[in-house]
Amino acid sequence: xxDCRIIxxxxxxxxxxxxxxxSADLKYFFPNFTADDKGMLLQPGQVLVTFFxxxxxxxxDGETQLLVDGFFSRPSAGKVVFGxxxxxxxxxxxxxxxxxxxxxxxxxxxxxxxDHAMDAPEVSKLTGAKVYGSSSTLNIxxxxxxxxxxxQLFEVGKEISLGKFSITAIHSKHTPPFKLFxxxxxxxxxxxxxxSPLQQPAKVEDYIEGGTYDFxxxxxxxxxxxxxxxxxxxGTLNNYPADVFxxxxxxxxxxxxxxxxxxxxxxxxxxxxxxxxxxxxxxxTKPLSKALVALPYLTDNVDSGFRFLLKKAQEDKIDLRLMQxxxxxxxx
Length: 332
Ligand SMILES: [Zn+2]
Prior knowledge:
By secondary structure, this protein is of the alpha/beta class. Helix content is 25%, strand content 20%. It has helices spanning 2-15, 26-29, 77-82, 89-98, 114-117, 120-127, 135-143, 257-271, 302-315; strands at 48-51, 57-60, 65-68, 104-108, 130-133, 151-153, 160-162, 165-172, 212-219, 222-227, 244-248, 275-279, 319-320, 327-330. A seven-stranded mixed beta sheet has the order 6-5-4-3-2-1-14, covered by helices on one side. A seven-stranded mixed beta sheet has the order 7-8-9-10-11-12-13, covered by helices on one side. Residues 13-19 have low confidence and may be disordered.
């Protein structure tokens, strides 16, 4: 998690600086990205998705709701770098109320860094939904005294059925380590997992990655792929055809051409997706709002990442849509 701290320290240093600005003019890249289907009455077979920043997504077919990650607290950069972080119950409850999260059956956690896994136990307590995750994620839940019956270790490649949805966790890889001023950072190979219950408040570096997973979500004939982290394992997604690809974009713009092309090939092209919705492009030390901003320069180059994706999407005639914080879209 040291990479996160370096990014956030940079954010703090830059936040007092006049030159500080997000690294992408979102309206320039996505002039229509604020469209919102929130509250739309769903017809049978339709699926509504709501984006809450980072890789937090709510899927709803009118009967069953599923959540990916469920990270709503978004603590400030000051807390992340200099202090400890914990779930903000008030913020979580207000999201649950505003978005009528009252039929939630599962919370699927991509990996165990705080910006994915931290709020999962609290969301579970407030909704009754079960948390599905790695052993590290389950240790985050145990630290918050979540009942054993409210958490489940997922088996990679094995479908979990919830209502008309089915979800499969797939082995993946975390975004490449961040480099700043020549310093690199990566999960400590000697401590790849959270091995004992982690109690809040905790330091961000205590939220160890614990393995990274993609989620293949099926609803009837419709198929979706959720990839929170900007990385891939060659060929892994070849057997997972998808209609919509929720594509992690954190630091995509900082990668070389070869990586960007291989990433696209092993994700969007491998699944034959006809629509892309970018994930994890926003500055997650700012509160959730309909005015999320991109990560700033030095921590990412979102312009470059989006420019690459727009070019590819145009070539392949794929619909590329950016969603703002808390906005919804009927997928099918
Ligand atoms: Zn992470």
